[in-house]
Amino acid sequence: MENPFEIILERLDRIEKAIKNLNVGETKAPVDELFDIAQVASYLKITKSTIYKLTSTSEIPHYKNGHKLYFKKSDINEWIFSKRIKTCDDIEKEALEYLRRNPKKFK
């Protein structure tokens, strides 16, 4: 007859291995990359003085801790891509949609 403690220990070992295998697949949420003034200037390919101007007028998203400025890469990307210029086709589609929704205004 087998020792019940040995059976329990074997089962515990299998459970531990199974748990370790489950944890291997887990990934932590990526940490947003943090830029300082020089890094964001380099990333945007503009001068540091331009970055200072953009922060002083609150045009660019940033964080301030004491006298240090910080920028989240995701905020910078979102800010850049929110400045999209509409094409002529985009403007024409909007105009046609506006006319379709408001036909009485233009009769």
Please give a structural write-up.
The chain has 107 residues and is mainly alpha-helical. It has one domain (32-107): Arc Repressor Mutant, subunit A (Orthogonal Bundle). The chain is 57% helix and 9% strand. It is built from five helices and three strands. It has helices spanning 4-24, 37-44, 48-56, 73-81, 88-101; strands spanning 34-35, 63-65, 68-72. The protein has a three-stranded antiparallel beta sheet. A hairpin with a 2-residue loop joins strand 2 and strand 3 (68-72). Helix 2 crosses helix 3 (48-56). The longest helix is centred in the first third of the chain and has 21 residues, at 4-24. The radius of gyration is 29 Å and the shape is elongated. It starts with a helix and ends in a 6-residue tail after the last helix. This is Transcriptional regulator, AlpA family. One of its GO terms (molecular function) is DNA binding. Residues 34-80 form the Helix-turn-helix domain.
